[in-house]
What does this fold into?
Amino acid sequence: MSILVKHFYNFLNSFSPLKIAEENDNSGLQIASFEAEIKGILLSVDPSKKAIFYAIENNLNLILTHHPLIYPSLKNIIKEELIGELIYLIIQNHLNLISWHTPLDKIEEGVSEALVKVLKLEKIDFITKKEIDGKVYGLGKIAEIYPPLTVKELAERIKELTKSWVMIVGNPQEKISKVGICGGSGGFLKDVLKQLGINTLITSDVKYHLAKLAEEEGFNFIIMDHNISEFFVLEFLKEKIEKFLQKTKLDIPVKIFKEESPYKIL
It folds into this structure.
């Protein structure tokens, strides 16, 4: 018995359906054959050159990433340019690339939930949510902090538990008992949280003007590395995939690739 890319694709779609993806997202098969037999699986946040070479060296012919390689759509494929080089590498080495982006952000056990668990907090609910076909999906999570911590104390916990650099916007000494958490770029959730009476958000990629506005409004951001904020969902995926593979009675390796942050903090 073997497992083909199409079987794996259908499995992903069964618990994290593509129909809940953001309108401008490009989740699903990126470069692949539905009929290819899977020999090994690599999980990575990014479809980077290092991740692709790791897959080649370890005979892992299916790469599942969170971030898409083709995003937005391409107008050309030129081997001497980075995206073109990666596409050539994937095709010439008979690899299959699948990306599962915003659907993995929106499911109950998705990106933000994985971060909540790593930070050892107690989740309450999604920050924003919507019911689709009888199931609730959403973005970000609200979590309870008990006993309450100052923003600085929480930031120090995040740094210790995630091994990520951390920045603070706002008042480091303010005590908080609830916090919003959104892996990836979640700064757009600030006003939603304010309406819910929550004035602190753990996220990534907060630009200067939003940070300055938040500071003047008395809102706090705890900012961490984008890759690290989304990395922990790969453990959830690995466990889910291994349980799925057990049903096939095939010994297919599933590996996680962890990449260093591109930011070098001096």
Residues 107-224 form a domain with the Udp-n-acetylmuramoylalanyl-d-glutamate--2,6- Diaminopimelate Ligase; Chain: A, domain 1 fold (CATH 3.40.1390.30). The longest helix spans residues 233-248. The radius of gyration is 19 Å. The mean pLDDT is 96.
